[in-house]
Amino acid sequence: MSYTPEDEETRACKEKQVEDLKEEIRRKLMNAAGKHFPTTEIHGCSATSWGGIPL
Fold this sequence. Notes:
By secondary structure, the protein is mainly α. It contains two helices and no strands. It has a domain at 18-48.
């Protein structure tokens, strides 16, 4: 499979969008959890504690 420059640009744009969405979810989870748990507990949680989303 070969990629044209446009394909590379499209792929890079989609990867950026995915990373931006991950960061948005990360912020929302931290904000929501911060209302219910002390900060020290949040940072100690594993990725599996957050539904498999690595923080």
